[in-house]
Design brief:
Blueprint (H helix, E strand, L loop, with lengths): L1 H4 L3 E4 L2 E4 L3 H15 E7 L10 E9 L2 H13 L5 E5 L7 E7 L1 H11 L7 H14 L10 H14 L3 H12 L7
Antiparallel strand pairs: 1-2, 3-4, 4-6, 5-6
Helix pairs in contact: 4-5, 5-6
Length: 180
């Protein structure tokens, strides 16, 4: 279906490359996740029983309609079943988020794109491990210590290191060859 809808072509190092086979499309999707995506575990508000729900999530946000439609169609072909949420904030352009949530869907997607991830590979490995542990468990099975630790690991990886950046910039400024 994608071939009839689009002839997906991307520009790589000044050359136009057609995304013809599935491996190329998965590599493109991996690159898109690296630049425009989020791989995380959402923790719900406290339920009546005093516990939280954990939901693995993979999202890609962008304002380009053609790109969003292409990604949604590609994920559908991979049997991942994405949800697309469009929003417009004030004067800004409409933007969309392609959302994949749940143990089965995220597990399937991450297993496919893992070879093409670089900087978000640690997050993908943690979320994939959580998905593999929980996919066949009953809905209300209590979370293990590993499951709860995964949330903290993801939070640590996804948090911007402002303190480290400040310390490193102070070290650079105090270097003997820096004027100022």
């Amino acid at each position: 279906m994608l071939e009839t809808l689009y002839s997906p072509t991307v520009l790589i190092r000044g050359k136009s490359v057609e995304l013809g086979n599935q491996q190329e499309r998965l590599a493109f999707l991996g690159g898109l996740l690296e630049g425009e995506g989020t791989i995380t575990i959402q923790r719900s508000n406290v339920r009546k029983n005093g516990k939280h729900n954990l939901l693995p999530v993979v999202q890609i946000a962008n304002s380009n309609e053609i790109l969003i439609e292409f990604v949604a169609e590609l994920l559908s072909e991979l049997s991942v079943g994405p949800y697309v949420y469009w929003r417009k904030r004030g004067e800004y352009a409409r933007s969309a988020t392609v959302h994949v949530g749940g143990y089965r869907r995220c597990g399937s997607l991450l297993a496919l794109v893992m070879p093409y991830l670089v900087s978000k590979k640690p997050q993908a490995q943690i979320v994939l491990a959580l998905c593999q542990r929980r996919v066949n468990l009953a809905r209300n099975t209590p979370y293990s210590a590993d499951d709860l630790a995964a949330v903290d690991q993801i939070r640590g990886l996804n948090t911007k290191p402002t303190t480290r950046m400040r310390e490193s910039s102070e070290a650079i400024c105090s270097a003997p060859n820096v004027v100022g």
